[in-house]
Amino acid sequence: MIDTLPLYFRDQGDPQKPVLCLMHGLFGSSSNWMGIVRLLQDQFRIINLDLRNHGRSPHYREMSYPLMVDDLLALCDHLELQTVSLLGHSMGGKVAMLTALTNPERVEKLVVADIAPVAYANRFASIFKGLQTMPLEQLESRDAADLHLSGYVAEPGVRQYLLQNLLKQGERWGWRFNLQSLIEAMPLLTDFPEVAGNTFPGDALFIHGELSDYVNQQAIRSIDDCFPHNRRRMIHAAGHWLYAEQPAPFAQAVASFLK
């Protein structure tokens, strides 16, 4: 991380190859992409960043998609990258889409993983309840934290994803992400900003999981409206966390599209 730069990022892969920026989903971080980075690092220079209020990036009270677009473009400016390709999952996919729709001259190609430019119902109420009620001051171990979360989140994989953000500093436990800001921003994060008929003239790939319900027919119509030059690819035997569940076919789809 460069001290004067707001966002934390990892500059990975081959510096002589085309640039690909990676953006994680809600509650995630750049660490989530490490398996994909290993599969793509010989073909791209990869800028793998922590979005605001996540990972090692600073905490801000304000949290919105336009602000995250500004953060991304400021990072690209700092790295003297005029155009880049973008890959975003879920919330990060919305950041990538909004960047392409509002700053198309900065985006070479766009890859969006299991999300669309539409509003979604809040699927995170039980997760937030589990995180808010975590007894951090009395917590004795990660196993105890997992046991607490199991009362709110049934899927073990999702609990482990969340618990990657649980840190112990001295004798105190805390969250790496800015929980309060995320709670306050949820109405904005489940929505998608009004783009006033903007379209992205470049090529876009939308990858969705066979077992996920995030990209339905309504979502596809919105994708077609905003991204007229889009392709779609389904990853078999994968849900919303498709890049983690099926990394090899996911990485292959990304690489073949970006070539």
TrEMBL record:
<dbReference type="InterPro" id="IPR029058">
    <property type="entry name" value="AB_hydrolase_fold"/>
</dbReference>
<keyword id="KW-0378">Hydrolase</keyword>
<feature type="domain" description="AB hydrolase-1">
    <location>
        <begin position="18"/>
        <end position="246"/>
    </location>
</feature>
<protein>
    <recommendedName>
        <fullName>AB hydrolase-1 domain-containing protein</fullName>
    </recommendedName>
</protein>
<dbReference type="InterPro" id="IPR000073">
    <property type="entry name" value="AB_hydrolase_1"/>
</dbReference>
<dbReference type="GO" id="GO:0016787">
    <property type="term" value="F:hydrolase activity"/>
</dbReference>
<dbReference type="Pfam" id="PF00561">
    <property type="entry name" value="Abhydrolase_1"/>
</dbReference>
